[in-house]
């Protein structure tokens, strides 16, 4: 019994070695003869992201690369991410391979894993298509993980009541003042869509670069005063004399009940609600100039993955226009690669929202923005 | 006796002492010794002061409302006879078994614009009324809903302990229901009443879920403010300082509770 198992594992090892040699040698004729490799994808996100993988990416990828099979593991809203992280860490410490070939997770796990050496540091040498990803985005993640799609906050408006959509932040402010009670944004402590409107008011006077960088100096925050004044002046024109609901979804519900006609909302979340019939048919989405903030979803490549070769093939394919088109069409996301690589028809169709997005303030500045918003805007000190 | 004592020391007393010492230690680079600088900073912010006052006000109003509604119910359950009171005795405990998160969301859908209450008021021809949710009104209404069973149970237990003979005796010498209540029942039930009031105050004052979900943007109750300082603003020291301030307020009220309990023990000896 013991003997049999040993022989089997030797054969298996030999088989894997052979497969690796054949793959790296790139012998086209032998592809069909190889054993299928199953890649395990652990994806954290909402159901729209699951659909993107299960109905979009995975069928298209396996059709193009028939020697791979993909096993999809969905972690709804990041439930179970702790366990996945522990699993990868445990495998690394025990010097074993992990069955997690690719993992999309919240940024916190990425940062936690970098000092542990859990992720492969990527480069154009490993992934040729990474050259199409904007450099600053890759530098922001130190090349650990592929920012394969983005989402940003946009302006959602009900075209039944709003005839001309605002195209700049100043247009938006003018509309809010002219239509009191018909706009709001969520409490910035409770959702990114609220943070987007607040940072837009601040960036309006300071620009975004200084506060998105990693250098933190509280003295710089005096530059936010004109932004606070602007927001404070807008309070009486907000829904219910200055009420900001808790969470991104609560704002969408106000739009759904036509209590308000315009709001800052996440592009993908708003479109998802719209597609499920939970928003009025007349809802439209547009991006203003300068664009509101957004961020990127990252897929990491665990260094101890059992199928590194296959995982890299998948990642490289993820950055092709073919896959990126699905990001746009299926979840209204932003492509991870630069727009100039996308098909011309798509560029034209999404020109209203496809303006990229402004960077998030760094975590420390964001924390101060949230605190000062309460002090200076709501209480009005 | 030892295990509970250890739990008390390691999970309550020690962390509390460390927290208090932390709030009294000087800000980095500002010398040694104990200082009240952090308290001055926290209490110097108008937003924090208004949150503290708001928390006390909401807790007081909620306690008063709960008390006014629970006492008659407790009296009814104690003295009424028949099937209906026993049915009520079961019904009023229902909120005890509903998690506050669910109760809060239920109250929101119930009280919000276009909710049931607004619709009824509109139908009755009342078109202008103050918003019922996302403000102090919403918090008080939800707290009342959630805390009535607890208050009725404690008040009811006190009422059960009153001897029927005393009440019958009062009636025999010609006391009406009001006189019986004021001269016999109320004085005999003082200790359970004080216990109910203080415990209600402390639990409402320190609540988080209901004010977080049903409250407005500002002012907020201390539970929400502390959580924001800790998790959103990354300002742990301020959050801990506020916790100590909240503890001092609750401890002052708790002193009434301790006095009531020890008084009861003296009586029972």
Distance N to C terminus of chain A: 78 Å
Counted beta strands of chain B? 0
What are the low-pLDDT stretches of chain A, counting only 5+ consecutive residues below 50?
Answer: 21-33
Oligomer: heterodimer
Structural class of chain A: alpha/beta
Largest sheet composition of chain B: none
Query: What general form of chain B does the structure show?
Result: globular
Which radius of gyration of chain B do the C-alpha atoms yield? 22 Å
Rg of chain A, rounded, reads 23 Å
* Overall average pLDDT of chain A: 86
Distance between the termini of chain B: 23 Å
Given the structure, what is the number of helices of chain B?
13
Task: Produce a short descriptive summary.
Chain A is an alpha/beta fold and 381 residues long.
Describe this structure in words.
- The complex is a heterodimer of chains A (381) and B (269).
- With 381 residues, chain A is α/β, with parallel strands linked by helices.
- Chain A has 15 helices and 9 strands.
- Chain A has helices spanning 2-25, 47-64, 81-93, 107-113, 135-140, 169-178, 192-206, 209-212, 225-234, 248-256, 267-275, 308-318, 321-331, 344-349, 363-378, and strands spanning 37-45, 68-76, 102-105, 146-158, 183-184, 262-266, 283-286, 294-300, 334-335.
- In chain A, strands 1, 2, 3, 4, 5, 6, 7, 8 and 9 form a 9-stranded mixed beta sheet that branches.
- In chain A, helix 7 (192-206) packs across helix 9 (225-234).
- Chain A is globular.
- Chain B is 77% helix and 0% strand.
- In chain B, helix 8 (164-172) runs antiparallel to helix 9.
- Chain B has 269 residues and is an all-alpha fold.
- Chain B is globular.
- The A-B interface holds A 187, 189, 240, 242-246, 257, 259, 363-364, 367-368, 370-371, 374-375, 378-379, 381 and B 45-47, 50, 113-114, 131, 134, 212-213, 216-219, 228-229, 232-235.
């Amino acid at each position: 019994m013991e003997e049999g198992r040993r022989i089997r594992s030797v054969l298996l090892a030999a088989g894997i070695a052979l497969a690796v040699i054949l793959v790296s040698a790139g012998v086209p004729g032998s592809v069909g003869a190889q054993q299928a490799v199953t890649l395990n994808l652990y994806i954290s996100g909402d159901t729209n992201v699951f659909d993107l993988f299960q109905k979009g990416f995975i069928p298209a990828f396996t059709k193009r690369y028939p020697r791979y099979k993909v096993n999809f593991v969905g972690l709804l809203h990041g439930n179970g991410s702790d366990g996945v992280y522990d699993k990868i860490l445990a495998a690394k410490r025990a010097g074993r391979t992990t069955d997690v070939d690719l993992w999309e997770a919240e940024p916190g796990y990425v940062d936690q894993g970098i000092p542990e050496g859990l992720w492969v540091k990527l480069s154009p040498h490993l992934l040729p298509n990474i050259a199409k990803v904007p450099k600053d985005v890759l530098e922001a993640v130190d090349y650990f993980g592929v920012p394969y799609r983005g989402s940003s906050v946009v302006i959602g408006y009900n075209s039944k009541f709003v005839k001309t959509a605002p195209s700049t932040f100043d247009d938006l402010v003018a509309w809010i003042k002219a239509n009191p009670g018909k706009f709001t944004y969520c409490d910035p402590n409770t959702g990114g869509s609220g943070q987007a409107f607040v940072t837009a008011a601040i960036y309006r006077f300071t620009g975004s670069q200084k506060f998105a960088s990693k250098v933190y100096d509280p003295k710089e925050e005096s530059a936010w005063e004109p932004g606070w004044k602007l927001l404070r002046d807008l309070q009486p024109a907000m829904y219910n004399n200055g009420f900001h609901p808790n969470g991104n979804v609560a704002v969408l519900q106000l739009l759904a009940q036509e209590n308000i006609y315009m709001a800052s909302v996440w592009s993908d979340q708003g479109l998802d609600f719209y597609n499920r019939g939970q928003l009025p048919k007349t809802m439209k989405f547009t991006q203003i100039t300068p664009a509101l903030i957004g961020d990127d979803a990252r897929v990491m490549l665990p260094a101890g993955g059992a199928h590194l070769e296959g995982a890299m093939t998948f990642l490289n394919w993820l950055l092709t226009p073919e896959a990126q088109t699905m990001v746009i069409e299926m979840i209204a996301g932003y492509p991870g690669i630069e727009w100039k690589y996308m098909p011309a028809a798509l560029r034209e169709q999404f020109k209203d929202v496809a303006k990229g997005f402004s960077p998030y303030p760094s975590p420390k500045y964001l924390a101060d923005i949230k605190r000062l918003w309460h002090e200076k805007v709501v209480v009005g000190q | 006796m030892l295990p509970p004592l250890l739990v008390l020391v390691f999970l309550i007393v020690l962390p509390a002492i460390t927290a208090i010492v932390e709030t009294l230690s000087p800000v980095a680079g500002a010398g040694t010794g104990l200082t009240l600088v952090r308290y001055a900073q926290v209490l110097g912010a108008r937003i924090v002061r208004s949150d503290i006052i708001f928390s006390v006000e909401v807790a007081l109003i909620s306690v008063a409302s709960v008390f006014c509604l629970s006492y008659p119910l407790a009296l009814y359950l104690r003295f009424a006879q028949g099937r209906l009171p026993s049915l009520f005795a079961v019904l009023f405990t229902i909120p005890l078994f509903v998690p506050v998160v669910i109760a809060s969301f239920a109250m929101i859908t119930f009280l919000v614009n276009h909710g049931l209450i607004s619709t009824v008021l509109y139908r009755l021809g009342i078109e202008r009324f103050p918003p019922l949710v996302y403000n102090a009104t919403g918090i008080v209404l939800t707290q009342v809903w959630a805390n009535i069973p607890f208050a009725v149970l404690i008040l009811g237990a006190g009422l059960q302990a009153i001897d029927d003979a005393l009440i019958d005796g009062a009636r025999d010498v010609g006391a009406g229901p009001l006189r019986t209540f004021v001269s016999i029942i109320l004085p005999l039930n003082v200790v359970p009443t004080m216990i109910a009031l203080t415990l209600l105050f402390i639990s409402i004052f320190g609540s988080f879920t209901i004010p977080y979900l049903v409250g407005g943007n500002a002012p907020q109750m201390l539970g929400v403010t502390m959580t924001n300082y800790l998790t959103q603003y990354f300002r742990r020291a301020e959050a801990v300082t506020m916790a100590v301030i909240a503890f001092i307020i609750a401890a002052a009220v708790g002193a009434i509770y301790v006095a009531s309990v020890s008084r009861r023990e003296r009586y029972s000896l």
